[in-house]
């Protein structure tokens, strides 16, 4: 299936006639008609309802029009990558968790987006990010789950996991707590589709302790809300809300962390530009050993990744 034939199809569909479409692509009407007939044979379905009046698309034609436009858009983007050395001329689509999009990618783009590829994004759960990249044809993903082994990847940062403690709790005024002490209290943990949970479970196993009482949650904001009401300590990476305070979770004196990765196909046509963007993001989000605060103006802090420090 040739791109030029797809252009003929899109032109005819948008013009409402083969003659009008032929004029748009500057090809004779008989030649376009032959190519469209061959295209229908190739896809195995009628794409146009032939009759009097304006040319109408069949149901299959309407579906195929969406795909043809997408293929042509991607072809144009690929051509732009190969014909322009300026990263700002490249447009990329990412898949990431909604909080990563809103609090990290958006904040980074506001400060440094002008000289880098224009990045748009769609949301998915961390466990589904790289599957969604494959399923939707997106350009790259950002997730706390590692990308497939045969993909190119970039470690963006390591994210500290914190205990969200309500006022009046014995740990409320603490800066940190060891896993072995924390597990003695009732805990509100995300389910195992979240890397914060699996990273915490790994730390618990390494500490050689068991969990006294755990309640699994699916939504981080509700875990925080229930922590604020005194129903337990929430184990999260989010900013403190509802009056809770964040306490760093430690294992043998080092904060328990999870990793944030960018991943993309190694042979992606814009692989060099994706890496340029990921490298810039990683440079902006430094890994800090003890203090989880990004060196950025207060209005653009990465609330989805890091917590306010305190003495």
Automatic annotation (TrEMBL):
Pfam families: HTH_1, LysR_substrate. It comes from Leucobacter albus. SUPFAM superfamilies: Periplasmic binding protein-like II, Winged helix' DNA-binding domain. CDD domains: PBP2_LTTR_substrate. The keyword Transcription regulation applies. Residues 1-58 form the HTH lysR-type domain. Keywords: DNA-binding, Transcription, Transcription regulation. This is LysR family transcriptional regulator. Belongs to the LysR transcriptional regulatory family. The keyword Transcription applies.
